[in-house]
Amino acid sequence: MSWLAFIGLAVILYYIVYLILWIVCDGNVWLIYKEHFGKPIAELRKNVVWITGASSGIGRALALQLAQEGALLILSARREKELEEVKAECIRKSNGKLHEEDVFVMPMDMLKIEDHQKCLDRVLEKFGRLDILVNNAGRSQRANWEDIELKVDRDLFELDVFSVVHLSRVVVRYFLKRDLNARGHIAVTSSVAGFAIAPFSASYCGAKHAVNAYMNALRVEHRNIDVTIFAPGPIATDFLQEAFTARHNEKVGLSTKNQKRMTAERCGKLFAVALANKMMFVWCGLFPVNVLAYVARSPILSHIVFLLLNEKALNKIREGKL
Ligand SMILES: NC(=O)c1ccc[n+]([C@@H]2O[C@H](COP(=O)([O-])OP(=O)(O)OC[C@H]3O[C@@H](n4cnc5c(N)ncnc54)[C@H](OP(=O)(O)O)[C@@H]3O)[C@@H](O)[C@H]2O)c1
Questions:
Q1: Is 111's C-beta closer than 6 angstroms to any atom of ligand 1?
Q2: Rounded distance, CA 159 to CA 53, Å?
Q3: Which residues, given as ranges, of the chain have pLDDT below 70?
Q4: What is the DSSP annotation of 119-174?
C-alpha cells in the first residue's frame, strides 16, 4: 500500500470512529473523554461555588454532584424552602465532607439587578472568597415566531441574558481586583438552542446565542478568567412548567414526563466534569440531539438537515418524541 493510500485510509477510519462516537456518546466527544481521562470532579473540593437556579433541575443536580466531592456551595434562587431542601440533601450526599456551615442558602431574584453586589458581598463575608460563579437560572420558551409579543422577548432577555451578564460583571470586577495570580471562573448554562436550529423558541434561541457571545467576549478580554459555556440538549426537569409562551405573563405549564430526555443527574455530572476541567464550550444530549449538535457546528451539514427535516420533525426531536 502506498503512503498516500495509507494516509487516506487512516483519515477515513478516523472519521468513521468519530461518527460512531457522535452516536454513542451523550455529550461532545471531548467532554466524555474528560469524564473518563480528565481531572476528577474532586479537584473542586473546597472550591467556593455559587450556583444560581439551584432550587430545582440542572442547578440542583449540579449542587448535589459538587457536594459529593466536597465543594463549598452557595445556593441561590427565589424559592427558599426548596433551597433549604437542596442544602439538606447536599450535606447528606457529601458523606461527611460538608457540614451545616459549608452550604449557604442565599435566596435571590436574578431580576433584582440592584441586589447583585449585595449578594456577592454576603458570599465574601461568609466564605472570604468566591472561586466559581455558575449562572444557571433561566427560563425556556414555546411559541410561534410570528406570535411573540415584544414584551416577552424583553422579559426573556432580562432573565436569560441581562441578569446573567450583570451578575457576571459584578463577579468579574471582584476577580480582577483580587490577587493577580488567582484565577476566576465564570460558567453559564446555555443550551443546544444557543448554537443549533430549535423551532418554536425564537426569543430563547436569541437569548442563549447572545449569552454565548457575551461569554466568548469575556474569555477573549481576560485570559486569567476561565469561562465555561455548558449547553445542554433536552433534560428532564420541570422547565416546561415555567417556560415563556408568546404572550406576556403566560407560562407553558406542561410536564416533560414520558419525553426522551437526559436525566438532570447525568446533566449535573457532566456539568461538574466541565467545571473541574475548566472546559470552554461543551454540550450534552441523548441521540439524536448529540449528533444534531455536531451537525449544527458545520454550515454545510446544518443546511442539509434544514432541507431534510421540517420544523415539526425538529420539534419532535427537541421534545424527545423521536
Ligand atoms: N431542561 C432543559 O431541557 C434545558 C436545556 C437547555 C438549557 N437549559 C437551561 O438550564 C437552566 C436551568 O433550567 P432547568 O431545566 O433546570 O429548569 P428549572 O428546573 O425550571 O430551573 C430553573 C431555575 O431557575 C430559577 N429561576 C427562575 N427564575 C429566576 C429568577 N427570576 N431569579 C432567580 N432564580 C430564578 C428557578 O428557581 P426559583 O423558581 O426558585 O427562582 C430554578 O431553580 C436554564 O438556564 C435553562 O435555560 C435547560
A1: yes
A2: 11
A3: none
A4: HHHHHHHHHS---EEEE-----B---GGG--HHHHHHHHIIIIIHHHHHHHHHHHH
* Dist. CA 120 → ligand 1 center (Å): 20
Q: Which atom of ligand 1 is nearest to the CA of 53?
A: 43
By C-alpha distance, which of 238, 231, 195 is closest to 53? 238
- Taking each helix axis from N to C end, the angle separating 264-276 and 57-68, rounded to the nearest 10 degrees, works out to 60
Ligand 1 pocket member 199 (CB < 6 A): no
For the chain, domains (ranges, CATH) are 24-318 (3.40.50.720)
pLDDT at residue number 72: 98
The reply to whether omega before 40 is within 30° of 0 (cis) is: no
**What was the pLDDT predicted at 257?**
84
pLDDT (0 to 100) of residue 182: 79
Q: What is the pLDDT of residue 304?
A: 94
Supply the pLDDT for residue 319. Answer: 85
Ligand 1: which residue has its CA nearest to atom 17?
239
Residue 44 CB–ligand 1 contact under 6 Å: no
Calpha distance 87→73 (Å, rounded): 9
